[in-house]
Amino acid sequence: MGLVCRVVEQAGIPTVCVSTGRDLTAQVMPPRSLFVNFPMGNNFGGPFNAGQQTAILRRAFSLFEEVDEGGFLEDWSDSWPTQVEYFRGRTGASG
Amino acid sequence: MKPINYVEELNRHYGSMGFPPYQWTINDTAPLVKPAKPVSDSRVTMLTSGGISLCTLPGFNPDARNDHRLDAVDQEVDSGDFQINDSYYNHDDADQDLNCVFPIDRLRELAEAGIVGSLAPRFWSGFMGRIYNRTKLIEESIPAFIKSLREDEVDLLVAAPA
User: Fold this and answer.
1) Which residues in B lie closer than 8 A to residue A88 (C-beta atoms)?
2) For B3-20, how does the pLDDT look when each residue is reduced to its tens digit (9 = 90+)?
3) Least crowded by CB within 10 Å, which of A58, A61, B29, B44?
4) Which ipTM score applies to this complex?
């Protein structure tokens, strides 16, 4: 997806990537990224938490107006409160 | 929660399945185009790679590799009319509420509130299939996507990988 953002941006259409994989995003370097330290598939937060979903989406939009240098990566302020499963049967450490 | 080291974990995961080491793309620069107008005047669309499709269409292959499928999604479709088929992440939450990963309801609300200017007629879902043939992606699939974005006069793209 980072590659898609880079090629679309090169074609003249600004992009922002809302990512849950910090290391993956950092090495691909999309033009603008908001890293959300939530499980993959929860890029915008939890189910039926419209306030959280809107806040993350609005922060992503604000990067269009704030970022001046390609490859910008911002960390979303909140982190997922519990352990997460990132492959079947594998659980990431919390804390 | 500390950020998960996906690169290390994916190398280990696929290595244990007998796959050769994945050639990760590592860039040290990135393009940047400044938007021509404020977000509040811009036409916006969104792209997900989360294996999300309309229930009226065949589902994505949940174990896909090199799947360049890209679905256009009418921007007025109900967020409850989707299915998710992707074995690479836990979509239990997104199955309950699509907006966890593809927040089309939230985007509509931002447009109604005037925070974004307008919505493009089409949203997008695709590029989900562990794509190894990047040349085809760069030379064919992404240019076709860009052509569609231009047809819709899109000013800004929000992308959410999953």
Assistant:
1) 87
2) 888 888 888 877 887 877
3) B29
4) 0.94
Residue A89 pLDDT greater than 50, yes or no: no
- What separation, in Å, do the N-terminal and C-terminal C-alpha atoms of chain B show? 18
- B160 φ/ψ angles, rounded to the nearest 5 degrees: -130, 100
Out of A12, A62, A82, name the one closest to residue B33 (CB).
Answer: A12
Rounded Cα gap, residues B130 and B132, in angstroms: 6
Distance from CA of B52 to the nearest CA of A (A): 11
Q: Which of B42, B154, B159 sits opposite A17 (nearest CB)?
A: B159
Instruction: Phi first, then psi: give them for residue B84, nearest 5 degrees.
Output: -120, 125
Q: Mutation target for B interface from A64, A65, A72, A82: give the one with most B CBs within 10 A.
A: A64
A87, A88, A91, A94: best mutation site toward chain B, by most B Cβ within 10 Å?
Answer: A87
Q: Write out pLDDT tens, residues A24-56.
A: 999 999 999 999 999 999 999 999 999 999 999
How far apart (Å, rounded) are the C-alpha atoms in residues B153 and B62?
32
Question: pLDDT at residue B91 above 50?
Answer: yes
Residue A95 has pLDDT above 50, yes or no: no
